[in-house]
Amino acid sequence: MKIIQIVGRSKTGKTTFIKSLIGALSAHGTVGAVKHLGHHGFMLEPGKDTTIYHESYAAISGGVDDGKSVIIKREGDLDSTLETLCNAGVEYAILEGFKSRPFPRIVI
Length: 108
What we know:
- The chain is 28% helix and 27% strand.
- The protein is an alpha/beta fold.
- The protein has a single domain (2-107), classed as Rossmann fold.
- The strands form 2 sheets. Strands 2-5-1-6 form a 4-stranded parallel beta sheet, sandwiched between helices.
């Protein structure tokens, strides 16, 4: 799996660039994208079943509808997430942030 890291300050167009990059790379293989959530973290909606499963210490919880699915893993580290992407057959992993990690990067 090839990893491409996009870094830069807030409001510099990283997400817009990544959206275009996903489109371009999708013509060449399967693309995954992961954002570093930093200080604001990932919010689960209080009281929803998927949140309750996670709060009950399920190793993996998630939800599926007609068009998409979401999986929440108890591991909160990048290496575990990259392993999941790799095992899912992702050929290109785009990372937004993770500035302390030494991957090939584009600075915006």
